[in-house]
Batch of 3 targets.
Target 1
Amino acid sequence: MRFVTAFCAPGFMMTMGVSITLFTGSRKRIGWSDARILQHFAIRGFLLALINFWMTMSFVAPSGKPLLLTTVLFALGIDMILGAIVLLAETRLTSYLYQRIENSSLPQHDKDRHQYRLRLASVLFYLIAAVILAVVITAVTPVYDGATPPKESDFSFWYLLWVLPYTDMMGDGARIGSVYPPLAWLSVVLWGIFVGKVMTEFKLGFNDNIKFHTVLSVVLLAIFFPLRALGGFGNINPGLAHQPGELPWVAFFNLIKYPPDVAYLTWNLGANHLFLVLFLLATSTEAAANAPGPWSLRGLVSRVVPLDAWETIKSPNNPVMSYGVSSFFFYIGHFQVFFFAAWWMKIFGIEPFAPGLEYWVAWVAGMWLMFLGCRWYGQFKASQPADSIFRFF
């Protein structure tokens, strides 16, 4: 289960970075100013952080004092704002330099060459920044030697909040349960902006996107396997790769997520790019309509899922589509639904977390309630203005 769910957080962060790029470009085309775009991301990001604190406000330290707990919502919110600031600053600088070149007395072919290099540099900036930040986070993270566990007092509050995950919430003097510090995950958001910039700056079509994400997946996985096998730099705790009593392949993929080290990121981002390729092939009518042969990958896709099935898949009555359209609403709501289900089961003497018939009945009933709620909310938010806060859910 841990192996499967480890793909999620890097996927969240990377696709958020891509979305920041696509949203900024689309709003600039309809005349939004940089200030309005930043205001949008600031409201959305702070809303995520606020809901993080609302959902965790019941956590208290043994001393009885409130405990600050940072979940994935906190990192997503803060990194959304930081990513937007970096992107807007970079695009403004790039536009200024682009115009300087355009207004220069250089011959047109020299202008074109310098402007292309400028565009390329604006894309590579995010790639380089993402790599450097990931390496720095890995390098500054202390390695637990198995003898002397670190204490919260060994680190400053702000270092734990921004950089280093620490979750000994029951320790004496506990002040913070830092699960997702924003700077530890900012490299993945910058990587997503890099991906989005390549897709938009070079106007990648369907085939180009397939090739681009395939190349990224292959490169990242080619880095991961020798990096993990050697067990040196890039692995915050290389000893996990050789745990006694564990199956060798289980130990090999037992990677460090808190904070994400280079080995973790190369494996999970490589897998996420592969998932994107599969999703593109599985959900694109172009993949089916342009299938060149029955035994090609596209041909197989079109044989498995006919063209007329896509409308059914995209219907709001499809639970998966309803969950996806209202994903943040689902995230908040599913805690309430299943906490209530667990409380109700305990009243009747049923252990809510023991796998059995009652467990699966409660799960199916809860998912059905969430489907009805998400379908309603998806229809409600679709009726709201484009900048309505309800669309954030």
Target 2
Amino acid sequence: MWSPIRTCSHFSTLNFGVLFSSVDPRLSSSNKLSATNNLDRSVQDRIFWTVPRGELRGSHVAEDEEEMEAQGRGAGRLETERRATGLVNYFLRLLALVTSFTAAVVAGSAKETEPVAANGGASAKLKIKAMGTPQFDYFVVVNAVACVYSAASLGLWAAAKGNSRSLIFVLAVTDVAAVALLFSALGSAAAMAILFRKGASPPAVYPRICNVYDMFCGLVFAAITMSTFAAVALFVLAVFSHFRLYYSSL
């Protein structure tokens, strides 16, 4: 980029000898140097003011406009990213709310009555249900807690509009706790579901029941699937919140 000051400096350097030679040789060395400096300064002033002032002012205005435009583009990009992250957070928390609620309701209402052959060729109707076993009781309670937590966190996020760094920190911690609870409940319920489907040895202790109570087993596996979706959604939210905290601290 052309600069009048740089041009002046270059001109004075190249023509220093000419200017010096034009000084009266009868002057002393100190007077020669002073006279040379005065001539050099006068030449620089004449060259500098040959550039129209309007052009210099216009170049500064153009640079300011370019800087303001770049700042506007950066602010627009940040606003777009903030809205996108807010929508993702809303969606994942709503997904965790719906799936954990569905898992708790389905597992709590899973039951079936079927006739079972008894000794002597007689048959009797036997009812089986998920509630009443410690594993499924824990599973239902944890999913109910996850449902309430998802609703509360969704409301807090909507109220703060995702702009509170302290709220992001709190949710990052509580999301991890909710994920830990959900995965522990999933482990206990999945272990019982495998026993229902495959049984254990000896069969008298844990017989296979899914060949008889197929609707009950279907409800149990549906509840486990819904709870898995809730756990994965909260896990993604926890990772997402930790990344936001990390990048905001840079």
Target 3
Amino acid sequence: MKFFLTIITISIFASLVTSDDTTITTTPLPPAPASPESQQSRIRDSRNHFDECIKELNIPDSEIKYYNTPNLPEDTPIGNCLVKCVMEKEGFFETDTGFQVEKLYKESMFSRIFRDDLSGQFLEMIKECVQSADENQNVCKRAYLGFKCLKDKNEQFSREIQKNKLN
């Protein structure tokens, strides 16, 4: 697993929000299981986006190993901009407008398979991450902090749901 797979995980299991005034309905859609072919295509696209960002940011070959990991890159200017670049290429973030709510929420598995209260809880969790990240003026840092918060909260949310399933 590589960093770019973390981006895929977020896109599949999470969604992002731009601001509090964004209205998104949480009515579950019918589950849309991804075919193995579409999953493989998504992984290929994400890998290509990651590779393009490595080139665009002129990250030397000797440093790629620090970013080509299952973990989130270090909280450094290059790591922050790598996250921003990949998220932009995936369509989840834009420099001018920030996190792309509609696209990510609609792609979110949580928005499709959970009842309204869980989907709504997830949406509120996302709003907290974005609002916190939006306090940062540096666009790369903002993308990084939002993504990190989302990743951490997504893991926590998933654990809570799994725990509740077992009880």
